[in-house]
């Protein structure tokens, strides 16, 4: 066992005592992220203020052979920031400086602890915003977004975090500060920024992030369409995409999700709806008007029984309020729930949703659906009451079955929340051993000692010393190998 | 007879890469056959060839035994129109794609293949709106230098399961393996388009962006002093937006692109560079005295340099401004003394990636940054 006490002394002298937490009670604040059913109290928490301090902490961990985990705001939903019991949790929340907003370059440079929404707020006076908008945008950090390659309602048109990060400063797992990319596009060499985004803290810690800013659209129009069945809402979604319209967002909620949202925020959605769609179009006014009429027509043609268009910003906010508060709202109709995050091809939506409800019924649990329909990114909320014997297990079974459905239909086990601790066991269902091994070649290049957020993403980490391809003869019997 | 004998033929005169002659050429017909070939070719230096349109980009290989040609791995595997995706084999020429009302929104010269386009990771005018191969690629199959077949990503647009290896392969110039299949996100073909052409200088670019007309491309050409903007969308929208922009730029509205649109500005035997700078530095590039052409909306441009002094001058200008300048192609005497890639931040990590994927350094040796 590494000498944690010696490491703590070193961290105190590098950072100052007030930036190193060892008090058991205080440490417990950090025992989980947004996925509260995994809990581990870290041995130490470090609160660096600068990139140099992050590097010093990582160097100290490497010297001591102690694992470390980065944490931003701790809103992750896959247990990515789950601490290591014998390791250091490096919390970037104090690194909240917006270094620069550079509208002439359409970039902003920020420290990792900066809250997503703050980037938009700082850019708005210049006519820009930061496009990736996870529902947690008021609390999650840019560092966490980079690690998770976070998405949001507007990804359908604008892409994910990875499409909006052009430069990083990272502390590599050996403790070196490295700059990757910058304000200009296409730096020569391998796309290390692209490889780092979405690596969930396993390839090092981002200490500065350069993001693209997006020009605020001239016009935004939002409509809410109510349908008598999920199938009709799904068909309307397909029809919109099929017509060649790329809305900024197409979000769907089913009856149970609507019920929860109404109970929580009284958003006043059309009564009796089995599904509602929120469709948002943005862009030049002339373009948006033409497409808005087209979308309205397609919703009608696919059986919408009521269509409301937001007349002003207040109404638009009300449409979104129900959607954005749906996760939290579900807490009102069920004491416990699991938020699942899987992806299917958009065209399979009606079929998969039907099968989800069959599975749920067979196990006697309820599932509320609220999701990014345009991307086929499902967020089934599996409701249960932990006080009832066996219900938690049944919910877990249903949640797993949903992931299997996503794989069966050629989709993904996660669209935006990441693999983390929670889904590492599903990785072998989506990828073969060779695929996983190839990913870990990258891990070994960055972090041969596997100290950076160990135990996440990969169910069985590779030993970085071994030579790839040593079993060629086995894999290609009869083939000459020279 | 081994797989190698079955699949290879002796090289001919035109089977060379940047002047380096090959010994053998093989054209496998499937991912499995390619894997068997690569596994059997342990010990041989390999360069992958697609359409051959950019094979002269980058330094010549340090060694070359075998050219793996992807022309027999061609064709569309799948086009799921409702899901806006397509699965294509690596040797498929981009010219041949039949996608109905949809498009794979990558500009490309005639003859470019899917694999070559991804491996090169260059970009044309429409990048401003649609992004590049990096952004449109959602899944990939690669034969690793040891012969292992490996997949990353998938067939859905939204997917964060595991590392995004597609990004790493994009622009890797064939140094990490043989790309055999790619999955792309598609876009609907716009109903209408127009070009607004003017002689406004590049300083006008901020005002185009500020006009919020959502251009698909903003291209400049220092040789003609022209600026051209592509507007796409609904018929009504295009009419209105191009009229607005036409007024703003005192420009002419046409159906057709200028003759220089999307073409590299250098001669076949000249020095060709790719320059990328932060947006605010684009005007300085256009005033630098070289023939510069490209995307003023993204800061990625191409230049024809008259000689080594000019290469160095342009590179210094770009690097000082926070950007990069890569020499893509040059006549062989010049090539030998030029540092084609220029300064490369993060090189130590890149070397470690190469060592993991290709420990014997057999794939395109010496073609990439830092002699990788
Ligand atoms: C109500 C709610 C709604 C949500 N909605 C969405 C949504 O719409 N879309 C979406 O994508 N996600 C959503 N999330 C999930 C979560 O907000 C995102 O994953 C977010 O990016 C996490 O940011 P964070 O700062 O909280 O990161 P944390 O939870 O602290 O960490 C997440 C991961 O990032 C790593 N990490 C953190 N900082 C760094 C760094 N500087 N360098 C390297 N690694 C780092 C951690 O090790 C961990 O693996 C939601 C969560 C909640 C609670
Ligand atoms: C002005 C201009 C605009 C351009 N616009 C675009 C654009 O918009 N989008 C875009 O993507 N490209 C663009 N390009 C680049 C160009 O389209 C492609 O790079 C090119 O066509 C490559 O295709 P190819 O099949 O001829 O490849 P080749 O010339 O055969 O090969 C190119 C490189 O890729 C490697 N390679 C080829 N096939 C494979 C494979 N299957 N696996 C691994 N490595 C392989 C080769 O070894 C070589 O290094 C542009 C170029 C210029 C100059």
Automatic annotation (TrEMBL), chain A:
Keywords: FAD, Flavoprotein, Oxidoreductase. Pfam families: FAD-oxidase_C (PF02913), FAD_binding_4 (PF01565). It comes from the Bacteria. The keyword tRNA processing does not apply. InterPro entries: FAD-bd_oxidored_4_C, FAD-bd_PCMH, FAD-bd_PCMH-like_sf, FAD-bd_PCMH_sub2, FAD-linked_Oxase-like_C, FAD-linked_OxidoTrans_Type4, Oxid_FAD_bind_N, Vanillyl_alc_oxidase_C-sub2. GO terms for molecular function: FAD binding; oxidoreductase activity. Residues 38-216 form the FAD-binding PCMH-type domain. SUPFAM superfamilies: FAD-binding/transporter-associated domain-like (SSF56176), FAD-linked oxidases, C-terminal domain (SSF55103). Transmembrane segments: none annotated. Its cofactor is FAD. This is Glycolate oxidase. The lineage of its organism: Bacteria, Bacillati, Actinomycetota, Actinomycetes, Micromonosporales.
From TrEMBL, chain B:
GO terms for molecular function: catalytic activity; FAD binding. Keywords: FAD, Flavoprotein. Residues 1-20 are annotated as: Disordered. Residues 17-189 form the FAD-binding PCMH-type domain. It comes from Paractinoplanes brasiliensis. It holds the Pfam family FAD_binding_4. Residues 1-17 have a biased composition (Basic and acidic residues). This is Glycolate oxidase FAD binding subunit.
